[in-house]
Design goal:
It contains 12 helices and no strands. It is mainly α. The chain starts with a helix and ends with a helix.
Length: 261
């Protein structure tokens, strides 16, 4: 692996490349925070996909793309006279030191659970930190991730189920309420509300088991897509369209796809 000096040299080279692009490339020169934001979101999702796939070459590439955006925002910050990448790094270092008193101070912790609980308490105390426990959860997060983070933050201040059986009881309760609303053909809004409660309880159950519902669902989506693509490819190989096949025929191809995995 690279030495510290080699890493710093590579970082400096990247800053130089970006400085030149900002001046000499018409596309780079016209970018703003607003124009970059949608691309940044896309890059983060691409990194997420690479991480789920555990594709090391792709992870390396996507990390570079995300890093480019971080440096680009810092470059724009310099141009506006607001901040530079040094201030970004210093602010992050100061925050990490402040939030890890068990590493940089005299605080003693018994394990990761206590670290997480201390983390939330510290964030409420620090200058410019969260004003409330849940204010640190961006409302723009995808719902599954948002639900996990809300529950996690609430749990870190003690608002949580005592044991797994209580969580399962809640899941069963919410499923029964959802089934009741659907069976009785309640208004759409009522059914949707109960569906949301049920999904929220499932996310909570997963969290208590150390599972991430968003990751689990993402992997299932990948699995379904992979198998369905196989079914479609086999249909095309016989010059047939899926709409021309029976469900039994498609199920048979689906089983073939499962057997090959």
């Amino acid at each position: 692996m690279s030495s510290r000096n080699e890493k710093l040299e590579a970082f400096g080279r990247l800053l130089d490349v970006l400085d030149r692009l900002r001046v000499e490339c018409p596309w780079d020169a016209k970018q703003t925070n607003d124009s970059l934001r949608p691309n940044t979101i896309e890059e983060v999702y691409e990194l997420s996909e690479a991480l789920i796939s555990d594709d090391q070459e792709m992870i390396k590439k996507e990390l570079g793309d995300v890093l480019l955006h971080i440096l680009f925002y810092a470059k724009i910050g310099v141009e506006k006279g607001n901040f530079d990448i040094k201030e970004v790094c210093d602010t992050l270092s100061d925050k990490l030191i402040f939030r890890h008193p068990h590493v940089f101070g005299d605080t003693k912790v018994s394990g990761t659970k206590e670290v997480e609980q201390n983390w939330e308490q510290i964030k409420l105390k620090e200058k410019g930190g969260n004003k409330t426990v849940l204010s640190g959860v961006p409302m723009s997060l995808p719902p599954l991730i948002k639900a996990y983070r809300i529950q996690e933050k609430a749990a870190n201040v003690g608002f949580d189920w005592d044991n797994a059986d209580d969580v399962w009881d809640k899941v069963d309760e919410e499923l029964a309420e959802l089934r009741y609303e659907i069976t009785n053909q309640s208004p759409h809004e009522a059914q949707e509300e109960e569906l949301g409660d049920f999904l929220f309880s499932l996310v909570n159950m997963a969290r208590k088991q150390g599972l991430n519902a968003d990751t689990a669902l993402e992997r299932t989506c990948h699995k379904f897509t992979r198998r369905f693509n196989y079914v479609e490819a086999q249909a095309h190989a016989t010059n047939r369209h899926l709409s021309e096949m029976t469900l039994d025929e498609m199920d048979a191809l689906w089983d073939e796809a499962k057997a090959q995995e």
